[in-house]
Write a structure and sequence with these properties.
Helices cover 33% and strands 5% of the residues. The chain is mainly alpha-helical. The chain has one domain: Myeloperoxidase, subunit C (Orthogonal Bundle), CATH 1.10.640. Strands 1-2-3 form a three-stranded antiparallel sheet, with helices on one face. Strands 4-7 form a two-stranded parallel ribbon.
Length: 553
């Protein structure tokens, strides 16, 4: 939830009462390994009052109780991919700057804590030999620590389950310090589903390490061999399973077969962007981080069929924030859910243990009918211009907020739209022209197809918005009009940045095109369901430890 951006050649971009602010970078900032960049032209900011109207339209509550926006139908996207996408975002970028929305920041204060590559440093940190990050690892310096759930009264839940909560700090004078996750990126504990996704990758790494050890890999190289296998399988899964669900597959195929045409193209090729040489560190384009890759916000459901105990719609989105160490306090009955010092528990109660069968389709995709979800899998919302209304009032902890900001600043859509103003992001129409694509027509922007209704805008505001559409909204409307997948501007931006982030990783399937997965059903297949099956040994009792019925029922 970044508030400030250091953009190559432009300096610090943020906002004050007069709009955008730019400060030239210092020598120290210019030498930082991670830098943002700009692909397209600069755009003109829109009136915040107009953006507030649009944000409210994007997060309006359903007209009738029980109704909701369209779920994904073609393609079917299991809900787990929403939070896999969030996990991937945290693998790509992390701004450690501690500033309020709109505050100025000096270059020396702008701290970047994440490599711009798909290399899972959000899980591994700087490795077990690092003096600071060795705390994330087991004593053998090969495996990652995992945590225990907290027993709670109830059939099958009055036990501590090992490996179903993130490891926690457990020490400190404050509850917030003790319940903090012992992982490199605390954002991966800001809601329960992304926390469980992070935990699944920890278990996947540990299982890979065990398999390699059983095959006789020497302990001196075991960690690096395990990490190499995990990262390559992760990248393969993103390329072949995740990306084609959210991006037009023809764009994904074109980028990975023929290379990038707009973002950091290789030296010696044509293209408008500065060329890069082998070994150059990737940058992070603000068109991706501020707009295109915020697509996942529209995929979030208001409630989830979570497990045996919290079935149906009882796994609400606000509760998934409560049962995390970064955003919540593990106590839904606390008077103030933002008060992390309240609540009885300092780790995940056992009754909130994940049931992976409800988030991914093992029955169909992995041909495992024994792993079918009791009432069917949760599907992600369609990628479009509507966000579920709980996102109109985020918990302050979800973005590191403190105090009592104006209610509109808790609206996720408003925050996204304001960020575009902060960095003078190009409009959707400007990016379409830059990429050589036909732009959406004004009537398509205003009407859409079952998405946000913009009737609250005045005629003057409609004209301005339809001709200078914020890039994030434009990309979502583009997907909405094309069946719920990113295409055109959004599809090209996401596919090219993923390709560059894999190419720029120290471990890379893009630079090693002959590599093939070994942990899936065949040498061409490795999906998220395969990762989970391997991590949990293909066992229903591990993928869904609470089962379908209470013990003794």
């Amino acid at each position: 939830m970044r508030e400030n951006y250091y953009v190559v050649g432009e300096g610090i971009l943020t906002t004050d009462s007069n709009g955008g602010v730019c400060e030239r970078p210092s020598t120290e900032a210019a030498l930082r390994k991670f830098r943002f960049s700009r692909i397209g032209p600069k755009g003109e900011p829109l009136d915040p009052a107009l953006l507030e109207k649009v944000a409210r339209a994007m997060t309006v509550a359903p007209a009738e109780e029980g109704t909701t926006q369209p779920v994904s139908a073609d393609p079917v996207v299991p809900a787990g991919f929403t939070y896999l996408g969030q996990f991937v975002d945290h693998d790509l970028t992390l701004d450690n700057t501690a500033k309020a929305l709109g505050d100025r920041v000096t270059v020396n204060e702008l701290l970047q804590g994440r490599s711009p590559a798909l290399d899972l440093d959000s899980v591994y940190g700087r490795g077990p030999r690092d003096a600071d990050d060795d705390r994330f690892y087991a004593p053998d310096k090969v495996k990652l620590k995992v945590g225990l759930t907290a027993a709670i009264d109830g059939p099958g839940t009055n036990i501590n389950l090992n490996g179903y909560d993130l490891p926690r700090v457990t020490q400190g004078s404050k509850k917030a310090e003790r319940q903090a996750a012992l992982i490199p990126d605390l954002r991966n504990d800001e809601n329960l589903i992304v926390a469980q996704t992070h935990l699944a990758f920890q278990r996947f790494h540990n299982r890979v390490a065990d398999e390699l050890a059983d095959r006789g890999v020497p302990s001196a190289v075991l960690f690096e061999r395990a990490r190499g296998s995990v990262v390559r399988h992760y990248q393969w899964m993103l390329k072949t399973d995740f990306l084609p669900r959210i991006v037009d597959p023809s764009i994904v195929d074109d980028v990975f077969a023929n290379g990038r045409r707009f973002f950091e193209t290789p030296a010696g090729t044509s293209g408008p962007y500065p060329h890069v040489k082998a070994g150059d560190t990737p940058t992070m384009p603000i068109e991706f981080s501020v707009a295109a890759y915020r697509l996942g916000h529209s995929m979030v459901r208001a409630a989830y069929d979570w497990n045996r105990i919290f079935s149906g719609t009882r796994g609400t989105l606000p509760l998934l924030f409560v049962f995390s160490g970064t955003s919540g306090n593990f106590d839904p009955f606390a008077e103030d859910l933002n008060d992390q010092e309240s609540g009885l528990f300092e780790r995940l109660p056992t009754n909130w243990t994940v049931d992976w069968r409800r988030l991914y389709d093992f029955a169909v995709e992995a041909n495992r009918p024994d792993l079918a979800a009791p009432a069917g899998i949760n599907l992600a919302q369609r990628i479009d211009t509507l966000l579920v209304d709980p996102l109109a009032a985020l918990p302050r902890g979800a973005f590191g907020g403190t105090g009592n900001p104006p209610p509109i600043e808790l609206n996720l859509a408003f925050r996204n739209l304001v960020r575009a103003n902060m960095v003078q992001l190009a409009s959707g129409q400007e990016m379409a022209e830059f990429l050589g694509l036909g732009a959406l027509k004004p009537e398509e922007i205003l009407a859409g197809s079952g998405g946000a209704v913009l009737d609250a805008l005045t005629e003057e505001e409609k004209t301005a918005f339809a001709n200078r559409t914020p890039l994030w909204f434009y990309i979502l409307r583009e997907a909405e009009l094309h069946g719920g997948r990113l295409t055109g501007v959004g599809g090209r931006l996401v596919a090219e940045v993923f390709h560059r982030a894999m190419e720029g990783s120290r471990i890379s399937i893009v630079r090693d095109p002959g590599w093939r997965p070994t942990l899936g059903p065949d040498r061409d297949t490795f999906r998220m369901v395969d990762l989970l099956l391997f991590a949990f040994e293909g066992r229903a009792d591990l993928l869904a430890p609470l089962g379908d019925t209470a013990p003794g029922a």
